[in-house]
User: Which sequence fits this backbone?
Protein backbone atom coordinates (compact mmCIF):
# COMPACT_ATOMS: atom_id res chain seq x y z
CA UNK A 1 0.00 0.00 0.00
CA UNK A 2 0.94 3.64 -0.36
CA UNK A 3 0.88 4.93 3.20
CA UNK A 4 1.54 8.42 4.53
CA UNK A 5 2.64 9.07 8.11
CA UNK A 6 1.98 12.53 9.53
CA UNK A 7 4.53 13.54 12.15
CA UNK A 8 8.20 12.58 12.55
CA UNK A 9 8.50 12.45 16.31
CA UNK A 10 9.45 9.18 17.95
CA UNK A 11 5.95 7.75 17.33
CA UNK A 12 5.97 8.70 13.65
CA UNK A 13 9.51 7.45 13.00
CA UNK A 14 8.80 4.07 14.63
CA UNK A 15 5.56 3.80 12.65
CA UNK A 16 7.29 4.66 9.38
CA UNK A 17 9.94 2.01 9.99
CA UNK A 18 7.44 -0.75 10.83
CA UNK A 19 5.29 0.06 7.80
CA UNK A 20 8.33 0.13 5.51
CA UNK A 21 9.53 -3.15 7.01
CA UNK A 22 6.14 -4.64 6.06
CA UNK A 23 6.76 -3.62 2.45
CA UNK A 24 4.55 -0.55 2.19
CA UNK A 25 5.51 2.55 0.19
CA UNK A 26 5.86 5.10 2.99
CA UNK A 27 5.98 8.91 2.89
CA UNK A 28 6.42 10.87 6.13
CA UNK A 29 5.21 14.47 6.41
CA UNK A 30 6.83 16.67 9.05
CA UNK A 31 6.27 20.39 9.53
CA UNK A 32 9.69 20.76 11.20
CA UNK A 33 13.15 20.46 9.72
CA UNK A 34 14.03 17.01 11.11
CA UNK A 35 12.95 14.02 13.18
CA UNK A 36 12.33 14.22 16.93
CA UNK A 37 12.44 18.00 16.92
CA UNK A 38 9.43 18.66 19.14
CA UNK A 39 8.12 16.63 22.09
CA UNK A 40 10.75 13.93 21.46
CA UNK A 41 13.69 16.36 21.47
CA UNK A 42 14.82 16.41 25.11
CA UNK A 43 12.59 14.12 27.16
CA UNK A 44 13.81 12.22 30.20
CA UNK A 45 14.54 9.09 28.17
CA UNK A 46 13.26 6.74 30.88
CA UNK A 47 11.93 3.34 29.77
CA UNK A 48 10.15 1.85 32.78
CA UNK A 49 6.97 -0.11 31.94
CA UNK A 50 6.08 -0.54 35.60
CA UNK A 51 5.92 3.24 36.03
CA UNK A 52 3.95 3.94 32.87
CA UNK A 53 0.67 4.92 34.43
CA UNK A 54 -2.29 7.26 33.76
CA UNK A 55 -1.93 10.73 35.17
CA UNK A 56 -5.65 10.44 35.87
CA UNK A 57 -5.52 8.55 39.18
CA UNK A 58 -7.62 8.41 42.38
CA UNK A 59 -6.72 11.29 44.68
CA UNK A 60 -4.81 13.12 41.96
CA UNK A 61 -7.18 16.13 41.69
CA UNK A 62 -6.91 16.77 45.45
CA UNK A 63 -3.14 16.36 45.29
CA UNK A 64 -2.88 18.85 42.42
CA UNK A 65 -5.00 21.42 44.25
CA UNK A 66 -3.08 20.95 47.50
CA UNK A 67 0.29 21.62 45.92
CA UNK A 68 -0.77 23.96 43.14
CA UNK A 69 0.75 27.09 44.59
CA UNK A 70 3.77 25.61 46.29
CA UNK A 71 7.17 26.62 44.98
CA UNK A 72 8.09 23.13 43.79
CA UNK A 73 4.68 21.88 42.64
CA UNK A 74 4.91 18.99 40.15
CA UNK A 75 1.81 20.34 38.35
CA UNK A 76 1.51 24.00 37.33
CA UNK A 77 -1.00 26.23 35.59
CA UNK A 78 -0.19 28.56 32.74
CA UNK A 79 -2.16 31.67 31.87
CA UNK A 80 -5.83 31.96 32.82
CA UNK A 81 -6.82 31.94 29.15
CA UNK A 82 -4.76 28.82 28.53
CA UNK A 83 -6.31 27.00 31.49
CA UNK A 84 -9.84 27.95 30.40
CA UNK A 85 -9.14 26.52 26.95
CA UNK A 86 -8.27 23.22 28.58
CA UNK A 87 -11.34 23.23 30.89
CA UNK A 88 -13.26 20.53 28.92
CA UNK A 89 -10.16 18.33 28.98
CA UNK A 90 -9.74 18.87 32.74
CA UNK A 91 -13.35 17.84 33.28
CA UNK A 92 -12.81 14.57 31.40
CA UNK A 93 -9.53 14.03 33.25
CA UNK A 94 -11.29 14.45 36.60
CA UNK A 95 -13.90 11.86 35.60
CA UNK A 96 -11.14 9.44 34.53
CA UNK A 97 -9.65 9.57 38.05
CA UNK A 98 -12.30 7.14 39.31
CA UNK A 99 -10.64 3.99 40.72
CA UNK A 100 -12.22 1.53 38.29
CA UNK A 101 -11.35 3.68 35.24
CA UNK A 102 -7.79 4.22 36.44
CA UNK A 103 -7.25 0.51 37.12
CA UNK A 104 -8.39 -0.48 33.63
CA UNK A 105 -6.25 2.19 31.94
CA UNK A 106 -3.17 1.35 33.99
CA UNK A 107 -3.43 -2.30 32.93
CA UNK A 108 -3.78 -1.27 29.28
CA UNK A 109 -0.79 1.05 29.42
CA UNK A 110 1.39 -1.45 31.26
CA UNK A 111 0.57 -4.18 28.73
CA UNK A 112 1.54 -1.89 25.85
CA UNK A 113 4.64 -0.58 27.64
CA UNK A 114 5.95 -4.06 28.40
CA UNK A 115 5.43 -5.12 24.78
CA UNK A 116 7.03 -1.89 23.60
CA UNK A 117 10.18 -2.44 25.66
CA UNK A 118 10.54 -5.90 24.15
CA UNK A 119 10.09 -4.43 20.67
CA UNK A 120 12.64 -1.70 21.38
CA UNK A 121 15.18 -4.22 22.64
CA UNK A 122 14.57 -6.34 19.57
CA UNK A 123 15.05 -3.43 17.17
CA UNK A 124 18.18 -2.30 18.97
CA UNK A 125 19.75 -5.76 18.78
CA UNK A 126 18.59 -6.73 15.28
CA UNK A 127 19.57 -3.43 13.63
CA UNK A 128 22.66 -2.99 15.85
CA UNK A 129 21.62 0.52 16.82
CA UNK A 130 24.23 2.31 18.90
CA UNK A 131 22.73 5.08 21.03
CA UNK A 132 23.21 6.34 24.58
CA UNK A 133 21.48 3.94 26.95
CA UNK A 134 21.96 2.20 30.28
CA UNK A 135 20.09 -0.23 32.53
CA UNK A 136 18.53 0.32 35.95
CA UNK A 137 15.88 2.67 37.34
CA UNK A 138 15.88 3.86 40.95
CA UNK A 139 12.90 5.64 42.50
CA UNK A 140 14.12 7.76 45.42
CA UNK A 141 11.95 8.13 48.53
CA UNK A 142 13.24 10.96 50.72
CA UNK A 143 11.32 10.30 53.94
CA UNK A 144 8.72 8.21 55.73
CA UNK A 145 5.89 10.20 54.16
CA UNK A 146 7.23 9.49 50.66
CA UNK A 147 7.48 5.78 51.45
CA UNK A 148 3.92 5.72 52.78
CA UNK A 149 2.62 7.45 49.64
CA UNK A 150 4.52 4.96 47.49
CA UNK A 151 2.94 1.89 49.11
CA UNK A 152 -0.08 1.71 46.75
CA UNK A 153 2.25 1.95 43.76
CA UNK A 154 4.47 -0.79 45.19
CA UNK A 155 1.40 -2.98 45.60
CA UNK A 156 0.42 -2.34 41.99
CA UNK A 157 3.91 -3.30 40.79
CA UNK A 158 3.45 -6.63 42.56
CA UNK A 159 -0.01 -7.13 41.09
CA UNK A 160 1.29 -6.42 37.59
CA UNK A 161 4.16 -8.86 38.04
CA UNK A 162 6.86 -6.19 37.63
CA UNK A 163 10.25 -7.31 39.01
CA UNK A 164 11.47 -4.80 41.61
CA UNK A 165 13.22 -4.53 44.96
CA UNK A 166 12.49 -2.16 47.85
CA UNK A 167 15.90 -1.09 49.15
CA UNK A 168 17.12 0.75 52.21
CA UNK A 169 19.31 3.82 51.74
CA UNK A 170 22.60 1.96 52.06
CA UNK A 171 21.78 -0.54 49.31
CA UNK A 172 20.39 2.23 47.08
CA UNK A 173 23.63 4.20 47.40
CA UNK A 174 25.61 1.14 46.39
CA UNK A 175 23.66 1.08 43.11
CA UNK A 176 24.10 4.84 42.60
CA UNK A 177 27.27 5.72 44.55
CA UNK A 178 27.22 9.32 43.31
CA UNK A 179 24.14 10.18 45.40
CA UNK A 180 24.84 12.94 47.92
CA UNK A 181 25.10 11.82 51.53
CA UNK A 182 23.72 15.17 52.65
CA UNK A 183 20.25 14.61 51.18
CA UNK A 184 18.08 12.34 53.37
CA UNK A 185 17.09 9.06 51.72
CA UNK A 186 14.61 6.77 53.47
CA UNK A 187 14.33 4.04 50.81
CA UNK A 188 14.31 3.39 47.08
CA UNK A 189 12.49 1.19 44.60
CA UNK A 190 14.90 -0.50 42.20
CA UNK A 191 13.73 -1.76 38.80
CA UNK A 192 16.78 -3.50 37.39
CA UNK A 193 15.17 -4.40 34.04
CA UNK A 194 14.21 -0.81 33.26
CA UNK A 195 16.54 1.98 32.24
CA UNK A 196 17.16 5.01 30.06
CA UNK A 197 17.90 5.66 26.39
CA UNK A 198 18.46 8.70 24.19
CA UNK A 199 15.14 9.01 22.37
CA UNK A 200 16.33 11.55 19.81
CA UNK A 201 19.44 9.55 18.88
CA UNK A 202 17.32 6.44 18.44
CA UNK A 203 14.86 8.33 16.22
CA UNK A 204 17.66 9.51 13.91
CA UNK A 205 19.09 6.01 13.62
CA UNK A 206 15.69 4.44 12.93
CA UNK A 207 14.92 7.09 10.33
CA UNK A 208 18.03 5.96 8.43
CA UNK A 209 16.86 2.35 8.63
CA UNK A 210 13.42 3.34 7.33
CA UNK A 211 14.98 5.24 4.44
CA UNK A 212 17.05 2.21 3.50
CA UNK A 213 13.76 0.33 3.22
CA UNK A 214 12.42 3.02 0.85
CA UNK A 215 10.61 5.42 3.20
CA UNK A 216 10.68 9.07 2.12
CA UNK A 217 10.68 11.99 4.55
CA UNK A 218 9.20 15.36 3.51
CA UNK A 219 10.48 17.92 6.03
CA UNK A 220 9.27 21.52 6.30
CA UNK A 221 6.02 20.31 4.76
CA UNK A 222 2.98 20.88 6.95
CA UNK A 223 -0.21 18.96 6.17
CA UNK A 224 -3.11 21.37 5.89
CA UNK A 225 -6.05 19.04 5.25
CA UNK A 226 -7.06 15.41 4.73
CA UNK A 227 -9.78 14.10 2.44
CA UNK A 228 -10.75 10.56 3.47
CA UNK A 229 -12.06 8.01 1.01
CA UNK A 230 -11.15 4.88 -0.92
CA UNK A 231 -7.93 6.78 -1.50
CA UNK A 232 -6.91 9.65 0.78
CA UNK A 233 -5.88 13.04 -0.55
CA UNK A 234 -3.30 14.91 1.53
CA UNK A 235 -3.17 18.67 1.04
CA UNK A 236 0.33 19.73 2.12
CA UNK A 237 2.32 22.93 1.86
CA UNK A 238 4.61 21.53 -0.82
CA UNK A 239 1.94 19.84 -2.90
CA UNK A 240 -0.81 17.25 -2.65
CA UNK A 241 -0.36 13.48 -2.49
CA UNK A 242 -2.86 10.65 -2.93
CA UNK A 243 -2.32 7.49 -0.89
CA UNK A 244 -4.19 4.38 0.18
CA UNK A 245 -3.96 5.14 3.90
CA UNK A 246 -2.79 7.85 6.30
CA UNK A 247 -1.49 7.27 9.83
CA UNK A 248 -1.76 10.40 11.98
CA UNK A 249 1.12 10.48 14.48
CA UNK A 250 1.17 14.23 14.94
CA UNK A 251 1.50 15.87 18.33
CA UNK A 252 -0.92 18.30 19.97
CA UNK A 253 -1.87 19.85 16.61
CA UNK A 254 -3.40 16.57 15.47
CA UNK A 255 -6.76 17.74 16.76
CA UNK A 256 -6.78 20.72 14.39
CA UNK A 257 -6.09 18.41 11.45
CA UNK A 258 -8.73 15.84 12.39
CA UNK A 259 -11.56 18.16 13.40
CA UNK A 260 -12.64 19.04 9.82
CA UNK A 261 -13.25 15.34 9.08
CA UNK A 262 -15.47 14.98 12.14
CA UNK A 263 -12.98 13.66 14.69
CA UNK A 264 -12.94 15.66 17.91
CA UNK A 265 -10.22 14.10 20.03
CA UNK A 266 -9.76 15.49 23.57
CA UNK A 267 -6.04 16.21 23.16
CA UNK A 268 -4.35 18.70 25.49
CA UNK A 269 -0.86 20.17 25.54
CA UNK A 270 0.71 19.27 28.85
CA UNK A 271 4.11 20.94 28.85
CA UNK A 272 7.21 19.36 30.32
CA UNK A 273 10.62 20.87 31.15
CA UNK A 274 14.16 19.56 31.07
CA UNK A 275 17.75 20.67 31.63
CA UNK A 276 20.68 18.87 30.00
CA UNK A 277 24.21 19.58 31.22
CA UNK A 278 27.66 18.06 30.54
CA UNK A 279 29.19 16.02 33.33
CA UNK A 280 32.19 17.44 35.15
CA UNK A 281 35.47 15.56 35.28
CA UNK A 282 37.43 15.76 38.52
CA UNK A 283 40.99 14.41 38.58
CA UNK A 284 41.17 11.22 40.59
CA UNK A 285 37.39 10.78 40.64
CA UNK A 286 36.52 10.23 37.00
CA UNK A 287 33.06 11.28 35.88
CA UNK A 288 30.55 12.19 38.55
CA UNK A 289 26.76 11.92 38.41
CA UNK A 290 24.28 9.08 37.98
CA UNK A 291 25.00 5.71 36.41
CA UNK A 292 21.57 5.31 34.86
CA UNK A 293 18.07 6.70 35.57
CA UNK A 294 16.46 7.90 38.80
CA UNK A 295 13.18 9.46 39.85
CA UNK A 296 12.73 11.79 42.80
CA UNK A 297 9.26 10.66 43.80
CA UNK A 298 8.50 13.71 45.95
CA UNK A 299 9.05 16.22 43.15
CA UNK A 300 8.25 13.88 40.22
CA UNK A 301 11.57 14.75 38.58
CA UNK A 302 13.70 12.28 36.63
CA UNK A 303 17.50 12.35 36.47
CA UNK A 304 19.03 10.49 33.53
CA UNK A 305 22.56 9.64 32.44
CA UNK A 306 22.93 10.12 28.68
CA UNK A 307 26.50 9.43 27.70
CA UNK A 308 28.63 12.25 29.09
CA UNK A 309 25.61 14.37 30.03
CA UNK A 310 22.92 14.45 32.67
CA UNK A 311 19.31 15.31 31.93
CA UNK A 312 16.90 16.34 34.64
CA UNK A 313 13.25 16.48 33.55
CA UNK A 314 9.86 17.04 35.10
CA UNK A 315 6.87 19.31 35.65
CA UNK A 316 3.44 19.17 34.06
CA UNK A 317 2.19 22.58 32.96
CA UNK A 318 -1.42 22.99 31.84
CA UNK A 319 -2.39 26.00 29.77
CA UNK A 320 1.21 27.04 29.14
CA UNK A 321 2.70 28.35 25.93
CA UNK A 322 5.77 27.79 23.82
CA UNK A 323 8.85 29.82 24.65
CA UNK A 324 7.71 30.88 28.12
CA UNK A 325 9.74 29.19 30.86
CA UNK A 326 8.27 29.25 34.34
CA UNK A 327 11.17 30.17 36.67
CA UNK A 328 9.70 28.01 39.45
CA UNK A 329 9.61 24.93 37.22
CA UNK A 330 13.25 25.43 36.30
CA UNK A 331 14.13 26.07 39.95
CA UNK A 332 12.68 22.67 40.87
CA UNK A 333 14.86 20.94 38.29
CA UNK A 334 17.98 22.75 39.54
CA UNK A 335 17.11 21.91 43.14
CA UNK A 336 16.62 18.17 42.54
CA UNK A 337 19.86 17.93 40.57
CA UNK A 338 21.77 19.80 43.29
CA UNK A 339 20.20 17.76 46.09
CA UNK A 340 21.30 14.42 44.66
CA UNK A 341 24.38 15.20 42.54
CA UNK A 342 25.85 18.55 43.70
CA UNK A 343 28.70 19.73 41.52
CA UNK A 344 28.40 16.79 39.14
CA UNK A 345 27.59 18.85 36.04
CA UNK A 346 28.78 21.95 34.24
CA UNK A 347 25.51 23.60 35.12
CA UNK A 348 26.45 26.92 33.51
CA UNK A 349 26.37 25.10 30.16
CA UNK A 350 22.96 23.51 30.72
CA UNK A 351 20.52 23.44 27.80
CA UNK A 352 16.96 24.16 28.86
CA UNK A 353 13.96 22.79 26.98
CA UNK A 354 10.19 22.88 27.11
CA UNK A 355 7.98 20.60 25.06
CA UNK A 356 4.25 20.03 24.62
CA UNK A 357 3.15 16.47 25.27
CA UNK A 358 -0.08 15.46 23.46
CA UNK A 359 -2.10 13.92 26.26
CA UNK A 360 -5.55 12.33 26.35
CA UNK A 361 -7.48 12.81 29.60
CA UNK A 362 -7.61 9.15 30.65
CA UNK A 363 -4.02 8.12 29.89
CA UNK A 364 -3.67 5.51 27.12
CA UNK A 365 -3.00 6.51 23.50
CA UNK A 366 -5.38 5.86 20.61
CA UNK A 367 -4.28 3.16 18.16
CA UNK A 368 -6.03 1.88 15.06
CA UNK A 369 -8.74 2.93 12.67
CA UNK A 370 -10.36 6.32 13.11
CA UNK A 371 -13.75 5.35 11.72
CA UNK A 372 -13.04 7.51 8.65
CA UNK A 373 -12.04 5.62 5.47
CA UNK A 374 -8.29 5.47 5.03
CA UNK A 375 -7.45 7.38 8.23
CA UNK A 376 -5.56 5.59 11.04
CA UNK A 377 -4.43 6.93 14.42
CA UNK A 378 -1.32 6.45 16.55
CA UNK A 379 -1.30 9.40 18.93
CA UNK A 380 -1.99 10.78 22.40
CA UNK A 381 0.87 9.04 24.23
CA UNK A 382 1.45 11.99 26.57
CA UNK A 383 4.62 11.79 28.66
CA UNK A 384 5.04 8.06 27.82
CA UNK A 385 5.71 8.39 24.09
CA UNK A 386 9.26 7.05 24.23
CA UNK A 387 8.25 4.14 26.46
CA UNK A 388 5.31 3.20 24.19
CA UNK A 389 6.60 4.09 20.72
CA UNK A 390 8.05 0.82 19.44
CA UNK A 391 5.12 -1.29 20.59
CA UNK A 392 2.48 1.18 19.37
CA UNK A 393 4.08 1.25 15.91
CA UNK A 394 4.11 -2.54 15.60
CA UNK A 395 0.50 -2.78 16.79
CA UNK A 396 -0.60 -0.15 14.25
CA UNK A 397 1.28 -1.83 11.39
CA UNK A 398 -0.35 -5.16 12.21
CA UNK A 399 -3.81 -3.57 12.38
CA UNK A 400 -3.35 -1.79 9.05
CA UNK A 401 -2.27 -5.08 7.43
CA UNK A 402 -5.33 -6.88 8.80
CA UNK A 403 -3.30 -9.02 11.21
CA UNK A 404 -4.09 -9.58 14.87
CA UNK A 405 -1.55 -7.67 17.01
CA UNK A 406 0.64 -9.63 19.41
CA UNK A 407 -1.11 -8.07 22.43
CA UNK A 408 -4.68 -7.41 23.49
CA UNK A 409 -5.64 -3.93 22.24
CA UNK A 410 -8.88 -3.66 24.23
CA UNK A 411 -9.37 -0.07 25.35
CA UNK A 412 -6.77 1.39 22.99
CA UNK A 413 -9.15 2.26 20.16
CA UNK A 414 -11.07 5.46 19.48
CA UNK A 415 -14.29 3.82 20.67
CA UNK A 416 -12.99 4.20 24.24
CA UNK A 417 -13.21 7.97 23.93
CA UNK A 418 -16.48 8.03 22.03
CA UNK A 419 -18.19 5.99 24.77
CA UNK A 420 -17.22 8.57 27.41
CA UNK A 421 -18.23 11.80 25.74
Assistant:
Amino acid sequence: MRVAVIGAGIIGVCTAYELAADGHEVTVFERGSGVAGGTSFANAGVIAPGYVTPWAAPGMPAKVLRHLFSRHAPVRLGSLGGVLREAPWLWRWWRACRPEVHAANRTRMHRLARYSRNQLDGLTARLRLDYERSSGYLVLLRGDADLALARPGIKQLSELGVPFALLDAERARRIEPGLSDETPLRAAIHLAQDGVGNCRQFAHLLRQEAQQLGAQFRFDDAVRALRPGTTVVIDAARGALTVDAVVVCAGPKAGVLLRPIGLKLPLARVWGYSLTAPLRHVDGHGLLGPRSALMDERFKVAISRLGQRVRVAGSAEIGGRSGHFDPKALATLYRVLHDWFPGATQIANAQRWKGARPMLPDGPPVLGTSGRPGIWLNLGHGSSGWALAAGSARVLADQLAGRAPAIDTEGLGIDRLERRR
About this structure: The chain has a mean pLDDT of 94. The CA atoms of residues 145 and 298 lie 9 Å apart. The radius of gyration is 21 Å.
